[in-house]
Amino acid sequence: MNIKQLLSHLGITAHESQIYLALIKLGPSIISRIGEHTGMHRPTIYKAIRALIEKGLITISPRGKQNRYIAESPEKLKEVFNAFYRSFERILPDIQRTYDIKKQKPLVKFIEGKRGVKYIYEDLLSTLKRGDIFYCYTSRRASRAIRRYAPRNYYTRRDEKGIQRFVITDALTESQEKPDMNRSIKILPAKHGIFDDNIRMLIYGNKVAIGDLDTETAIVVESPLFASLQRKIFKTLYELL
Fold it and tell me: In terms of pTM, does the model score above 0.85?
């Protein structure tokens, strides 16, 4: 980064920095001399000089009928930087509040077709790290059907990462009856009707995903607050079963 680029970050324009640096080399100078050195026209020079005077980087020394313009010490740039920093500190809280509000708003993805349901499991694998946990509501029917949608090598990749699963379902499938140290299952009696539909709901990371296997529709909601609430509800129900 050169000097002019650095000064631009402090709110000093290219014309202003050119004139200021020229005056450091030239010493006290009149407008015509500044113009000769920089190649700028008088209106541009006057405009830039007014701005530099306001910033405290140039002072005027009257000499007869003409003014001479003098560059202040580069130490003055520290004052410009400090003023910039103070302004930044004042506006930063407002920017942060806007960012936090935006960050809390849920991001919703709606995906149709087989690729939609498949997307949930691809996203789960990419979101969760080794040893992480996801929570799942699923019917026996949905558990049997899900193998048609799982990405290639999903189960191998899931097990290699040691991802733990907590499941609430209405009845065990044949695969769920096999022992699995990374899976814990609780049964919610079918009489409650919660699993009448062919739907799976997964809670992982900051996301809640719902896969409707009848319509082949997937909805993924990314929201730390929403995911936290759903996780608490799942854990409460899981402990009660």
Answer: no
